[in-house]
Every structure is written in structure tokens, then in C-alpha cells.
UniProtKB/TrEMBL annotation:
Pfam families per UniProt: ODP
Chain ranges of the Metallo-beta-lactamase domain: 29-218
Lineage of the organism: Bacteria, Pseudomonadati, Pseudomonadota, Gammaproteobacteria, Oceanospirillales
Superkingdom to which the source organism belongs: Bacteria
PANTHER family recorded: HYDROLASE, METALLO-BETA-LACTAMASE SUPERFAMILY, METALLO-BETA-LACTAMASE DOMAIN-CONTAINING PROTEIN
Annotated protein name in UniProt: MBL fold metallo-hydrolase
InterPro entries attached to this UniProt entry: Metallo-B-lactamas, ODP_dom, RibonucZ/Hydroxyglut_hydro
Species of the source: Oceanobacter antarcticus
Database matches in SMART domains: Lactamase_B
Length: 244
């Protein structure tokens, strides 16, 4: 499991975990994130059950387990949160923030000690250490109950499946050309994003945020100007095209 610090300012930092060279070829590659401020930290979309051991080992190189006070699951997919039952044993005092819609589904992954904190449809703000994180609605993109995480101090948007591309672990960390990268995203977004109305609502919200890095759950991250170029491309892309 590779780990890369993508933002650091004193005790406020973002770390990306992924690109595991030892993962099975049958498992899609995922990006997991940890955001820390002071004595508190949150794991964002901590991954599938098959990733728990390498994830835990990688995370503990940066922060002791007792400082991981929060988890976040953007939606209910197994590559997002099927490791929950194991995190429940490792972090019994943590809180899991996730869409209210998916609580009864997510509990199937196992949760007897971690406290479930339901995010309302309109989103909310969470204090983590000395920073404020915003849960930004991204409903139907691709899950009917879905959120992203925005850190206004770091100017990072963790964007879940939006911006995702399926590439091998040797790909660069950041997008370097939208011309060559958009073909890697097109089919994924057209199949998995079902609603043009929801897409446009999300773009409207995100254009109002000050973003330096957009960090999806799969593939490369976006810096400016590629972040703005992505929004322009996504705005024009017809989605939900599997059924005609």
C-alpha cells in the first residue's frame, strides 16, 4: 500500500493511500484518504475488507489508532466500506459519518461499537480538530444517497466516484493532460452517473468552492487548471446512457 501526503500545514494534513502492488488483479484499485487536524483524524472511504490489513499498517505509520476518531463512507458500495467490521474492532470509540439512507445497508458489513452518525440529505459541517469539513451533497452520482468531503482550509474536495478513472498502479498521481485523460473517464461516467440533472446540480455546488485538489476514489487526482477543465468536460458529457 503506497501512501502520499498531498497536503500538509503543521498538524493539518491529507494523506492518500492506494496503488497497492500486492492487490489481487480481480480487485479494482481504490484511493483511500486520511485527513488529520491536531489530535483528531478521519478516514475517508477506508476501503474493502481485502484492504484492511495493508491499510491499517500504512495508516499506523503516520498516526496512532487512538487519534483516528472518525470514519466517513460516501455511500454503501463494498469497495468503500466493506472493511467496516474490522475497523469496528480496531477503532471501537470512533464515529462513522455516512448518508442516513444507507445506515441499514452499511450495518450489514458489521458495526457493534462504532457509532453511526447519519448525514442528512442537505449535508452538514463537522469540526475535526481545528478545521471544519463540509459534507457536500452528491446524490445519484452514482449512489442515490452520496456525499463528498470539502476541506476549505486545505482547498481539497474528496469527490468519490466523480473524476474516477481505471488505471494501473504505475500511472502518475496527478492528471497531466485532459486530452489524454478524458478517454479513460468517459465510459465510467456515462455508465455510472445516471442523471444529468443531478450532475448539473453537483457542478453548480462545486463551482462555488475554492478547490486546489479534487481527489476521487479511483485513479488520478486533479489540480488546477485540470480541475476546472474537468468540470467543463463533465458538464457537457451526456450521462446515464446505458438505457436508450
Amino acid at each position: 500500500m503506497q501512501a502520499t501526503i498531498i497536503y500538509e500545514d503543521g498538524d493539518h494534513r491529507w494523506i492518500m493511500f492506494g496503488r497497492d502492488p500486492n492487490k489481487s488483479d480481480g480487485i479494482i484499485d481504490t484511493n483511500q484518504y486520511l485527513v488529520q487536524s491536531g489530535d483528531q483524524a478521519m478516514l475517508l472511504d477506508p476501503g474493502g475488507i481485502e484492504l484492511f490489513a495493508p491499510m491499517l499498517s500504512a495508516v499506523l505509520k503516520f498516526i496512532p489508532a487512538e487519534k483516528i476518531t472518525h470514519l466517513f463512507a460516501s455511500h454503501q458500495d463494498p469497495d468503500i466500506i466493506s472493511s467496516l467490521g474490522l475497523w469496528d474492532q480496531a477503532l471501537p470509540d470512533a464515529k462513522l459519518y455516512s448518508p442516513w439512507l444507507w445506515e441499514s445497508f452499511i450495518r450489514h458489513f458489521g458495526m457493534s461499537q462504532i457509532r453511526f452518525c447519519a448525514i442528512p440529505d442537505e449535508g452538514q459541517t463537522l469540526t475535526l480538530g481545528r478545521i471544519q469539513l463540509q459534507f457536500v451533497p452528491a446524490h445519484y452520482l452514482h449512489s442515490s444517497g452520496n456525499f463528498h468531503v470539502y476541506d476549505p482550509k486545505a482547498k481539497i474536495l474528496m469527490s468519490g466516484d466523480i473524476g474516477a478513472a481505471m488505471e494501473d498502479s504505475a500511472a502518475p498521481l496527478f492528471v497531466d493532460s485532459m486530452t489524454t485523460h478524458t478517454p479513460k473517464m468517459r465510459q465510467f461516467h456515462q455508465r455510472w452517473m445516471p442523471s444529468n440533472d443531478a450532475k448539473l446540480d453537483w457542478i453548480r455546488r462545486v463551482r462555488q468552492l475554492d478547490i486546489n485538489i479534487m481527489a476521487p476514489q479511483h485513479g488520478r487526482l486533479f489540480r488546477q487548471p485540470h480541475m476546472t477543465e474537468f468540470l467543463d468536460w463533465f458538464e457537457e458529457l451526456p450521462v446515464g446512457i446505458a438505457v436508450r
